[in-house]
């Protein structure tokens, strides 16, 4: 069992930056890959970024590649989403999740709202 709590969202102007945090509880955090997802109003949830258990491998949605990074700190049981050059289309509720099996995510956090104004 793991519990995830996101924080760090807010209102930012286009071109600005934010860092989202995802705090995990549970003893096996460093055994699991983690992902960030987002859901914009009226749209389906979409994949944003993924990091493997050690932090040595990451991948990103094409829409955020080059602007977002997903570091993790296993000692602190934290995963982050560093976002720069934000665009209005990045506005969404951002959630982190644990990859419990190949491509399957669980233990979703409650999400944190990111609003980018033009």
Give structural notes:
The chain contains no helices and twelve strands. It is mainly β and about 120 residues long. The model has no long low-confidence stretch (mean pLDDT about 95).
> What is the string of SSEs from the N terminus onward?
EEEEEEEEEEEE
Mean pLDDT: 96
Terminal CA distance reads 40 Å
Largest sheet: 7 strands, mixed
Strand content: over 45%
Instruction: State the low-pLDDT regions, or none.
Output: none
Helix/strand/pairing class, anyone?
mainly beta
Compute the number of strand runs.
12
Rounded Rg: 13 Å
In helices, the fraction of residues equals under 10%
What is the count of DSSP helices, taking H or I runs of 4+ residues? 0
Morphology: globular
């Amino acid at each position: 069992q793991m519990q995830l709590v996101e924080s760090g969202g807010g209102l930012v102007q286009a071109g600005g930056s934010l860092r989202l945090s995802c705090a995990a509880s549970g003893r096996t955090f460093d055994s699991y890959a983690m992902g960030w997802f987002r859901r914009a109003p009226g749209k389906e949830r979409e994949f944003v970024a993924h990091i493997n258990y050690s932090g040595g491998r990451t991948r990103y949605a094409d829409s955020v590649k080059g602007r977002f990074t997903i570091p993790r700190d296993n000692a602190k049981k934290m995963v982050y989403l560093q976002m720069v050059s934000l665009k209005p289309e990045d506005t969404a509720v951002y959630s982190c999740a644990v990859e419990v099996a190949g491509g399957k995510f669980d233990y979703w956090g409650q999400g944190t709202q990111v609003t980018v104004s033009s």
